[in-house]
Design a protein that fits this description.
The chain folds into 2 domains: 193 residues, Ribosomal Protein S5, domain 2 (2-Layer Sandwich); 138 residues, GHMP kinase, C-terminal domain (Alpha-Beta Plaits), CATH 3.30.70. By secondary structure, the chain is of the alpha+beta class. The longest helix has 23 residues. The strands form 2 sheets. Strands 1, 2, 3, 4, 5, 6, 7 and 12 form an 8-stranded mixed beta sheet that branches. Helix 2 crosses helix 4, helix 8 runs antiparallel to helix 9 and helix 10 runs antiparallel to helix 11. The chain has 11 helices and 12 strands. The relative contact order is 0.19. It is globular. Strand 3 and strand 4 form a beta hairpin.
């Protein structure tokens, strides 16, 4: 028997950062995001011997370690984290050992939620294999606890819920890690127009978001008025953009996107840099209206709002830079798993 799973990556459209503690604990957070047809993948194959064989292709990890009755430490952090939590909460896997293969359509640090999506994907694969009945909220919450509490990795809460639910979602983040996911029924023509208007550009450089997130957390803890007020506006932008999206008002969508990026840059110095600014300058000079870096900032993917009739010109202009334009479409499917 072989078990496979797949979980979608996401574009953080508005509100990014307001899902990160302590801001979300103190003020509550709002996020608007949407999943796209780039994904994380996982395959589990039972082995007849007590061993864990790991092939994390995109992370450059290939190893095999003995598998006993206790926690495992293969060096593949996310796989180890999920397996050890499964072992603790649900008991041993149903075979002496297993092989697990994972890979991602986007590099780590791309700003599309790759690490959190991978945790959801691996967890979904285990739940299918072992018959563990996890709903979307349970899947996302457990993935969040594994990543943020067990592994102590920095970040927010939106990525796990986006990967579990899929589609366009307006999310509310409240104290005590309470999350409310509000799926949005966006008309087909609006989704088509948004796809036609958004250009996704990979800078060619992944970023280390942990340091940026830590500065954001420090700003909230210290009561930095400039940073906190900027985050208040970023949080409000998710509400405003939700309305623009549901109405198909692309002009307002573009304006809100650009204003939120200006506020985002006030959260930490490393959020932007000359490489990112050059990409913005080239894109705006060729006809783009606005844009923002997806994720914590510092690199990864840039989302650009472009009038569809100028999209070709912007794409051609960006070719002079080291990065690349990545085609994408929105998807309404969350994490899935199946057996062969």
């Amino acid at each position: 028997m072989i078990v496979r799973s797949k979980a979608p990556l996401r574009l953080g459209l508005a509100g990014g950062g307001s899902d990160v503690s302590p801001y979300s604990d103190l003020y509550g957070g709002n996020i608007l995001n949407a999943t796209i047809n780039l994904a994380a993948y996982c395959t589990i194959e039972p082995l007849p011997r007590p061993a864990l064989r790991v092939q994390a292709a995109d992370a450059g990890i290939a190893c095999e370690v003995p598998l006993g009755t206790g926690p495992v430490n293969s060096g593949a952090l996310l796989i180890d984290g999920v397996y050890n939590r499964i072992l603790r909460d649900f008991g041993p896997v149903p075979s002496p050992g297993f092989a697990i293969t994972t890979y991602n359509d986007a590099p780590a640090g791309s700003g599309l939620g790759t690490s959190s999506t991978m945790v959801v994907c691996i967890l979904k694969c285990f739940s299918e294999w072992m018959g563990i009945p996890l709903g979307n909220y349970e899947l996302a919450r457990l993935a969040y606890e594994i990543e943020r509490k067990d592994l102590l990795l920095s970040g927010g809460k939106q990525d796990q819920y986006a990967a579990a639910f899929g589609g366009f979602n307006f999310m509310e983040f409240l104290p005590s890690d309470l999350v409310i996911v509000n799926p949005l029924r966006v008309k087909d023509w609006i989704v088509e127009e948004l796809e036609a208007s958004l250009l996704l550009y990979f800078t060619g450089r992944s970023r280390e978001g942990a340091a940026i997130i830590e500065k954001q957390q420090q700003a909230t803890r210290s009561g930095d008025s400039v940073a906190v007020e900027a985050m208040h506006r970023i949080k409000q932008s998710a509400i405003d953009m939700k309305l623009a999206l549901l109405q198909g008002d692309m002009a307002s969508f573009a304006r809100i996107l650009g204003a939120a990026w200006e506020d985002k840059k006030k959260m930490a110095d490393a959020i932007t840099n000359p490489m990112i600014q050059e990409a913005f300058d080239v894109a705006l000079g060729a006809g783009a209206i606005s844009g923002k870096v997806s994720g914590a900032g510092g690199g990864g993917f840039i989302m650009l709002m472009v009038p569809p009739q100028k999209k070709y010109a912007v794409r051609e202009a960006l070719q002079v830079l080291p990065g690349k334009v990545v085609p994408f479409q929105f998807t309404d499917k969350g994490a899935v798993a199946w057996k062969l």
